[in-house]
Amino acid sequence: MKYFKPILAGTFLIIVIISCNNSNNQKEKTGEELSKTYCGSCHLFPDPALLDKRTWKDDVLPAMAEQLGIAYLYKMIPPDNPVITEEEWKKILAYYVNTAPGVMPTQQRPVVKALTNLFIAKRVVLPRGDFPSTSFIKIDEGNHWIYAANAFDSSLDIYDSGLKLLSHNKVNAVIVDIDFRNSLLEAGKRSGIFTNIGLMNPNDLSNGSLDTFSFDGRGNLTYLAKIFDSIPRPVQITKYDLDGNGKQDYLVCGFGNTKGALYWMKAKPGGGFEKKILIPLPGAIRCYIDDFNKDGLPDIIVLMAQAREGIFLFLNKRNGKFEMKEVLDFPPIYGSSFFELTDFNNDGFKDILYTCGDNGDYTGKVLKYYHGVYIYLNDGKNNFSQKYFFPIHGCYKAIARDFDKDGDLDIVAISFFPDTTNQPKESFVYLEQTTSFHFTPFTTEAFNEGSWITMDAGDVDGDGYDDIVLGSLIPPQPRKIKKWKKGNRQKTALLLLHNESGRLKYK
């Protein structure tokens, strides 16, 4: 979870254009050729069709021009050595403005209207005047608990399956991920590591940290200690012996802002850690560690949601060495937000469920038809091809489970940036798989009770059916705070969607 786009998509495009300029003489090239030369060599070329004319002209291109040393719409003193000439810039500008559509295409699907009867909503309602600020949420099936981290008061609450508050723990950290040491399928005490992002808002401070913790069987915090700090805005840290030397290393998704990296902290024999960079760019948002090529060694797969957006596989070559393979790449304005691995077609190979929809950037005023839920199938050799797409404006996360227990995988998805004017119900979508890769969309009557930024699924009450829990966060913007205090309508911080499949089955 990353709150909203920490570095603007247009800004990243600028940075990469500067770093990718490998031509000394571009005067004879067309605007399209110049655009592909400057930005297509480092990431997937951003086609003009991905945004409308106004957004390119008024939002993205002015910021690009400033960074390239061109005085376009902004008052600035041009540098002595601009990245491109005025003539080249005019060609790029004309290419994007003349080629882009006047109006963004629509989603090409019916508006989601149908309400599912599979889930019954239960709420955690905040006191009047308080703001939802959920930064992490997790279902503990063994203890029948729900963990909910609060970004504004740096706490972690634990609820039971009926949403009764069991404990309120001050952790002095903004928790965005937890790596548990023991299985959550069995009851008992809990221990592991917290990923503390530091500040959720976009920043380049290295004030994130990694903390170790323990909870007793009643959910009370019994131990908390820092392992290391000065991390660039981390969003996920995983403990694993990556080099097979018997010592625990840590894989860090240092999302950052304009700076960041995917790296691992190698445990040294005499104590301490050595930092090993895998990708020296911001945007690492989620990793999995698994043996993808079946050679007995732990490999890494990561979603880069900024800078060079895409999914990258790192194959373990022994002795702490990894070989990188780009398995999927996305345009730098897609707003990649989440992915998970699951086998959709039961062929024994893990496929990719991917979402894009982060819309907190220069292009945030635009509803993007390519935002939504994607399925990419694995051919058995870690090559992935698109099988399914369901459009959802501002999609932030999706989870695949067999919620109705009919033998195939369904999908639930949330949006942090839905089309609130025309179809606010897309803020929560339940996609029920009816036949192979054909999904029927539903929503819930409680779709509008929060601004859903995080979600988890699991059997919280032990009835054999997976439930869903949603976490709400209201961005600290003066207009929204004023509106909130005036109306005080959205006050649900946590929404539990209890799976009623068992009751419906025997009704």
Task: Report what the structure shows.
It is a single chain. By secondary structure, the chain is mainly β. It contains six helices and 28 strands. The protein has helices spanning 9-19, 31-39, 53-68, 86-99, 478-487, 501-505, and strands spanning 119-125, 134-140, 145-150, 155-160, 165-170, 175-180, 190-196, 208-215, 221-231, 234-240, 249-254, 261-267, 273-279, 284-290, 299-304, 310-316, 322-329, 336-342, 351-356, 372-378, 384-391, 395-401, 410-415, 428-435, 438-442, 452-458, 467-472, 492-499. A four-stranded antiparallel sheet has the order 1-28-27-26, with no helix packed on it. It has a four-stranded antiparallel sheet with strand order 2-3-4-5, with no helix packed on it. Strands 6-7-8-9 form a four-stranded antiparallel sheet, with no helix packed on it. A hairpin with a 2-residue loop joins strand 24 and strand 25 (438-442). Helix 3 (53-68) runs antiparallel to helix 4 (86-99). The protein is globular.
For the largest beta-sheet, the strand count, sense and barrel status come to: 4 strands, antiparallel
Number-wise, the strands total 28
Average the pLDDT over all residues and give the rounded result: 89
Computed over alpha carbons, the radius of gyration is: 23 Å
Instruction: Describe the global form.
Output: globular
**What distance separates the N and C termini?**
38 Å
- What share of residues is helical? 10-25%
Q: Total number of helical segments?
A: 6
Q: Structural class of the helix and strand makeup?
A: mainly beta
Q: What is the strand content?
A: 35-45%
Main-sheet strand order equals 1-28-27-26
Low-confidence stretches: 6-23, 484-488
